[in-house]
Amino acid sequence: MNKTTICSVVFLDIVEYSKKSVAEQIKLKNQFNALISLAIKNVPVTDRIILDTGDGAAISFLGDPEDALLTAMKLREAVHSGQEIPFFLRIGINLGPVRLVQDINKQPNIIGDGINVAQRIMNFAEPNQILVSRSFFDVISCVTDEYAKLFEYQGSRTDKHVREHELYAVKNEIGQEDAFKASFKHAHQVETKPKATPWWSNRNLLLKKVFPAAATLLILAAILVKTAQEPAKQAVPQQPAQMAQNAAPVIAPKPAEAVPEKLAPAQAAPHPRTGANRTEAPLPKKPAPTDNATLVFKVMPWGEIYVDGKMRGISPPLKSLRIKAGRHEIEIRNATLPKHSKTVEAHPGERVIIEHHF
Fold first, then answer.
1. Cα(226)–Cα(55) distance, rounded to whole angstroms?
2. Would the pTM of this model clear 0.85, i.e. be above it?
């Protein structure tokens, strides 16, 4: 249980929770817990840890970052749809390192920078607004184009610990339906549907659709058979004399034009002894030498790729990169974790594999 991992953390806060009476707080918390249970019902229990923070909750998703985004969007939509006790949420999402430990009651708990940053990002959010960190945006925006369209850059904010955070807001309702449809999790959800009645036992369906369609198909088949037989009956073999009369007149070919004595460019000069034309076969072209090499990246769970100080993408999804042969400085960065630096000597046409686990 005591281990460090990278996970997505959704930090939730109920706006003005402390200003309500104890009786209202109990009803509101029960309503809030029911919404969370409904939002995460499709996430396996082994892939999530929920912490009660009093006026909210912190949900850590140990699996796909997509689970964190969809859960936050479902909760915001549920609050908008109207509840028994109206309330608003502030939501912050971060992707970072956490340590799985056991609390005083021997229950799973999480600590670390990943959950701390999620709480600070949530503090910058407005009521019913979802803010995410730069590290979470870089990963989730690479999943589908629909996800990338959801986000809007909010600039950089400084928390009370004088730490800067680049923030992205999830647009409200704009493109949300497209994001749910594009979600791999949404596509694989299995909904229980009532058992359909067999079509052959539905009398109305047989009388209105099946029987008329079958009759139409039979009529079309009969027409096609009759149409195919008519050309064969009409075709009568012609007599030889009639065939000669119907034959088209033979047109005499035109005399060939004189060929100029000058040889065509494609012909070679005649051999001095034999007089035969000699054509030299073209020499095979040598393949042009390549001066490029290929870098192959195997980074877990993800990292920003810098080549000679210039960012070239995020791996995954980036798997390979073509560069000029020679010596290059490679850096792999992952949020607050120590960066990985390496100098490679790439020869022309060579594939250099760079492997790193944060």
1. 80
2. no
Note the pLDDT tens digit of each residue in 258-294: 444 444 444 545 555 555 555 555 565 655 556 888 9
Residue 14 CA to residue 18 CA, distance in Å, equals 9
Domain parsing of the chain, residue ranges:
3-187, 292-357
The letter for the amino acid at 162 is V
Please name the fold of domain 3-187: Alpha-Beta Plaits (3.30.70)
Token reading at 30 = 């029960």
- CATH class of the domain at 292-357: mainly beta
Contact by Cβ (8 Å): 351, 296: yes
Residues 6+ apart with CB under 8 A from 17: 25, 28, 55, 56, 87
Distance, CA of 139 to CA of 202 (rounded, Å):
51
Please indicate whether the domains covering 3-187 and 292-357 agree at the CATH topology level: no
Residues whose CB is less than 8 angstroms from the CB of residue 134 and which lie 6 or more positions away in sequence, other chains included = 165, 166, 167, 168, 335
